[in-house]
């Protein structure tokens, strides 16, 4: 497994060796060495199917329910976004993105301290998220993906959003709540 250059400190694009033959291809998404190196324990695997233009996010879990995520596009193509929510980071409130496709062997590692979202760029995008903590409805948080403060440049203008995502607060409206992270509190987890 190779690590590509980091965009914002803490984020990584992982690229595995891919093996092609007449049947198709095979690659490992992650292995025990990766998990041991990161000192993580994958506890849940989530799969989502999204139609072209769908935006899911911007989501994270706060407090002790924060999750690391390994995001992989299994089929189709997505514009995958991570937003820095570490209030003591010089990139706090900034985002970066990766284009992930089902015909490549890349995954986006998004550790605790970041929010996540994506837009489906093709029909029927199948996404896999490996996460390190159980889902908690009480600690589940959302920033409106169309927030003018974040100003994410979603590639497709005709967007499909859930009611909850479209009604979520903008980034600046959440600043006074205790739902963001510091690097110190992330290390204590």
Question: How would you briefly describe this protein structure?
Answer:
This protein is mainly β. The protein is 10% helix and 37% strand. The chain has helices spanning 32-38, 163-167, 183-188, and strands spanning 2-3, 12-15, 19-21, 24-26, 44-50, 55-61, 69-75, 77-84, 95-101, 106-110, 114-120, 125-131, 140-142.
Q: Describe it for me?
A:
With 189 residues, the protein is mostly beta strands. The protein has a single domain, classed as Jelly Rolls (Sandwich). 10% of the residues lie in helices and 37% in strands. The protein contains 3 helices and 13 strands, in the order E-E-E-E-H-E-E-E-E-E-E-E-E-E-H-H. It has helices at residues 32-38, 163-167, 183-188; strands at residues 2-3, 12-15, 19-21, 24-26, 44-50, 55-61, 69-75, 77-84, 95-101, 106-110, 114-120, 125-131, 140-142. A 6-stranded antiparallel sheet has the order 1-2-10-7-12-5, with no helix packed on it. It has a 5-stranded antiparallel sheet with strand order 9-8-11-6-13, with no helix packed on it. Strand 1 (2-3) and strand 2 form a beta hairpin. It is globular, with a radius of gyration of 16 Å. It starts with a strand and ends with a helix.
Kindly list the characteristics that best describe this protein.
Jelly Rolls, single chain, 13 strands, mainly beta
